[in-house]
Amino acid sequence: MSIQLVIVCVYIAMLFAISFWVKRRADKGSVEYLFAGHQLGYILVGVSVTGLAVGAASTVGVAEQAFSVGVAAGWYNGAWAIGAVFMGLIVAGKIRKWKVSTIPEFFERYYDTKGRIIAALGLVIVMCCIASLQYLAGGAILSALLPDIFVMRTGMFVSAIVFIGITLIGGLWSSGLSNLVSVILIYVGVIYSCIVSIGNAGGMEVIASKLSDPGKMLSPIGGLPMAVIVGWIMVMLNQCVTAQGMVQIACGAKDEKTARKGFILGGLLIFPVGFLCSILGIVALVQFPDITATMAMPKVVMGLNPFASGVTLAAMWAADVSTACTILLAAGTLFSQDIYKRFINPKISDEKFVKINRMVIFIIGLVTLWFAFNAVGIVRTMTAGLSLTAPFTCVFLLTVFAPSICRKSSAFWATLAGLAGIVVWNYVQELHVLSHVIYFEMTISLATIFIVSIFDKRRIKAADMEEGE
Description:
mainly alpha; 20 helices
């Protein structure tokens, strides 16, 4: 058995050991299972935020893009970090204080029932899209770095067993404690790989001398138009505020102060990882200029010694695991809380509700795995999927800071416009004069809210947001 496989197996065993260790606590009820009993400290909040953000797109994807645009590719993670800090400073504490468990629940509280339904369906679509990507990435990582053991489909299947199993067993407790291990492993693996791979390439001076345009490739902003970087930041600001994964972590914090500190810590932990991975992409460009960009990070890792490559493989896969578990839990929460319990079986006992949550997560896990097997093109639409959070964020922030603009039907129509906007963007190429779909989504969401305010005279209730409900 190879050293790389041993390291990965040890990591998997650790994750399942943690999950079974916290299972008794998670079994106490739905609040414990879904929201860790509102007992996460700021460190667990911080690593959970980091684990959610630093997935396959933030490691392998960044290295792939750095192959063509250089260090600036790291701004994908930089945008995540900015979004996490914004969430910590402005929103996370409020969500924890108001005791709102999902954004659709918030919509029904201040708007109407149909606003909750369409928001729940829209966010489930976003979460399933991201979950499908994690299976694809997990399969790609295992098959690329352990080709004698895994092909793409078996790598995806093994990834699914781990993702779904950990989430089913321990819920948010399992996800939070697993992220503590995963984030440490990610940092150790990526930093060590950077140091060794730069040394193998002869040092940064030698690397720079082999680049056709070192000024652009080694500049933190030179390789990308500012409009693209700003677009990434807008996407992450939107999804950090209203995507269920982030909301769920905020709900799991002990109190408002813990939520704020945890998200700020998460932002600080997220920021460097992208730029470290972009350096690995540049090293790959110098050492292996003829490979495809998607193989940039795997090719560099395979060139390391067995122990280093094993640790880095586990780190890359850890990034995928940490994202997938939180996303699956978030998707399950949206369906079970905002659809099943709210409209199908509102009188369900808490004990049975925990079982329903597990069953829903299992079904969503299988459905998203099927999507990943049969709809590989979903990778190309991930950013568009994240952009779908724009109408939710616009409604949420206007409700908090400018409620006079909002009307009872604003949440429904803004969400519907956002859903339609994604479809229109994909079919009307003339709209692509905008550098990113997020600009289009933000524009139509805000425009819809303002138009609705003209025709709908029913103002939302005057809620004292500082005192909560």
